[in-house]
What we know:
The protein is of the alpha+beta class. It has helices spanning 11-22, 82-96, 111-119, and strands at residues 2-5, 36-43, 46-56, 65-73, 102-104.
Amino acid sequence: MRIREAETRDAKRLRELNQQFNGVSGVFGIGSAGGERVLVAEVADEIVGFACMQIMRSVCYPTPWAELTELYVEEHGRRCGVGRALVAEAERVAWDAGCSEMLLRTHATNREARALFADRGFGEANHICLRKRRPSTAT
């Protein structure tokens, strides 16, 4: 297994994985999404998973923090350490960038993801995630 930074040549495969993951059929500009970093996991020269992360900075805090925004591994690549390796590499990138912490969100019912993150030392935070969707402009 090899974990590496995504490249433009990976866009087609990332589109396929993103469609499997969350039903969105796009990958919208590798390398052009602000501070986002995209990591891919290759097994036998095939990309079987990806992780997206961002390094966040604010004038209100002395150090940056990281957010792991996406993590997906194809079914046949699960329980083989692929997800664990992607998270470990995301952590390494965050710590090398001087981040004070890494945050992530996962659905409360996603037991597999929660177990993976707990095994990597993540604990629940006392935060509540709130959301507001952009109003429709259709009449």
